Amino acid sequence: MKTRSIIVALLILLCGTAMAAAQSQSLILEYVQGNDLTVTDPKGTVFTYASGGVFEGDSLAAGTILRTGPNTTVELRLKPNGTLVKIAKGTTFRIEGLATPQDNRNGFTLVAGKIRAVAAKGSTYDIYTASTVAGVRGTDFTMSYQEGRKAMLLVAKGAVEFGRRGPAGEMLDAFFVNAGQFADFFGGFVAQNFSNDIFNEEYGDLDVDPSRLPPDQVEAPAAKPEEPKAAESGQGDSSGLAELGDGKGKDTLGEKPPIAPSVDPDSPFVAWLREALGMEIGSITINGETYAKAVIQPTINLGKLKMALYLPIIYQKNLFDPADWYKPNGNDEWSFGTDKGWREEPLDAFIDAASDLFLKFKYIEYGRPLDDPFFIKIGNLNSFTVGHGLVMRNYANDTEFPAVRRLGLNLGLDNGGWGFEALANDLVQPEVFGGRLYIRPIPDFKLAFGLSAVLDLAPASIFASAPGGAEAYGNPIFIASGLDLDLPIIARNAVFGLRFFADAAAMIPYVRNEFTIGSDTAASGLRYDMVYADGAIKNWGAAAGFMGNLLFIDWRLEYRYFTGAFRPAFFDSGYERARAERVLEWAGYLTGADEISQAPSVMGVYGEGGSSLFNDKINLTFGYFWPWSPDVALDQQAAMANDYFKAVLSVKKGIVPVIDLSGSIAYERKNFVPTLAGWSGGGISLFDENTVFSGELVMPVPGAPNLDLAFIVNTVIAREANGDIIYRNPGTDTIPKIVPAITLETRLHF
């Protein structure tokens, strides 16, 4: 009890520190036009946008250097104040320092090239070149620098204080450049009116979509501000940053010394909080019960190594009473073995402590599939596909998160001529495994042949709390194996990509114990007869088609053919909740109560398309498969069709005007049209065990730029407090009950 009270106190202290750090500024890579962008982080690691090492939405730390190529421009956004900085083509730009609650200054260096800055009202920052310093307090201007030739400031709105850069980075000989004026260090260094030609030369390639401009940008002043008295002997406005070197700025006019470039003004701990820490506070519905929650979610990025922790306290009445905390699957995740007894049962206590520790990791990953020769991810797996997905496609182990948390494993290796990928759904209680081994027999040619296998060791575990348990259905093991071919025809690029693929697979069960349904009995053992008997192959399927991209549209078109109890994407995003249906179906075939020959051969075309619009602010994906059987009469095709429908929509911030809403909705359903039309005979139910649904709506809190309100809805399997499944009709039905899980939370970000 004492240990867990200390944990609560530490989490509350961490939350308080996070709140204190919330007003720090962050600089976001908001928009990239082109692919030639190089980002060097403060440790000297180089990332490129084209290779996927840099992404829009990334936060950039002090000390980061950005370089744009001859065909690329970049827009940066200071948050929370909204200032926009656009970096022109062929420019090198360095982030010197970002504002904190203790120091409201931001500092940047234009090493070479040109930028445009549109400052939000109240913004305070300094921009350096090797020769000049510009002190900005809200305006719209450009700066361009070519060593020894040009150091020009041009102001379209507002006014900018401009001066010569002193030996310690201080501003000397300062004067104001007002709206309609420019000044060039190598061209007289005085404010003078600009012509249309000069304006077009400086602004012509730095247009910004008006919807992305700060809404409160300062209008041009009615009168020229009084010019400051020129500084002497290094004295003057000390709002600049110190010269890189000894890092010591001269204290002038009673102000504190300027910040040294390339030195983060935050303390290491506060900088870590701002960049790595996320927090959620709110309510959540689990198994029909409403809980309050406080969750700390630190994230750590070290190059290709990424890690996210999940440190929750989910409770009903008393935050400080561990007995009131939610226990996923009946496990006290904060006990670390103390509930087992380290003296009485040291081995059980060790296993429990290790399990509790693993649950605190949302994920640990290194590398990226398809991009890196080696990758590994441990924790939440929200999408995993073996090969092209004929057996396993978009499998997820986190559909019941956080009510049920699993520590999955996904790893892969690409050695050029050969490679493999593998999956386990949960390292603590592993049940579902998948893998693929592939070879490329022709050197320097991407043609690959693969061998895949997926198995579920305990599909009937979903009946653990039902009468008879898993043994009533033979406690089977589902085994699927297949072969595939993959041939990239045109490598994916910004315009067009094309890949051909073909897959074939079969299902075979292993029955652990003999079982009987009615008067029919199923034999135990590996049931080869489910694949081949009487000279015929059963329960197999094949698919072939093309996938690729056309401009901003990703697409997939494939022909499918399958027989018997085989189903394409047997292991999919909804597999965990569909296990009962799969076991019941196979039990009928295994006992002979249902002849496999009565299950028709099915064929059809599956199509899927997705696109990103408005600079990836809106993402849409649709997919549909309508099966057709030659063994079923035409007037019965619709009623018997087990079709598949998928729709995903996500909207990021910056699209919905005024309130800046964002969110997402995803819906996947098997037997969609027959259920919708009432043909299936079971009534209309769009949210049952055949459905995977999730939705999220996020709204910023007015006046609090670091806070969002989020409303989240998911469909999950209903469970008792100890983790036992609740069935739709207890005693007569073994299909799990599906219920909504609703979360209302406040998110704190930095």
What does this molecule look like?
This protein is mainly beta and 750 residues long. Among the domains are: 26-265, Jelly Rolls (Sandwich), CATH 2.60.120; 388-411 and 420-599, no CATH class. Helices cover 10% and strands 41% of the residues. It has seven helices and 42 strands. It has a 23-stranded antiparallel sheet that branches. It has a 15-stranded mixed sheet that branches. Strands 29-30 form a two-stranded antiparallel ribbon. β12 and β13 form a beta hairpin. The longest helix is centred in the first third of the chain and has 19 residues, at 2-20. The model is unreliable at 17-23 and 218-268 (pLDDT under 50).
**Strand residue content:** 35-45%
What's the pLDDT, averaged over the residues?
Answer: 79
Main sheet characteristics: 23 strands, antiparallel
Spans where pLDDT lies below 50 across 5 or more residues: 17-23, 218-268
**Level-2 CATH architecture of the domain at 26-265:** Sandwich
CATH class of the domain at 26-265: Mainly Beta
Please give the alpha-carbon distance between the first and last residues.
33 Å
CATH fold call of the domain at 26-265: Jelly Rolls
- Rg on CA atoms, Å: 31 Å
Beta-strand segment tally: 42
Shape: elongated
Fraction of residues in helix: 10-25%
Computed structural class: mainly beta
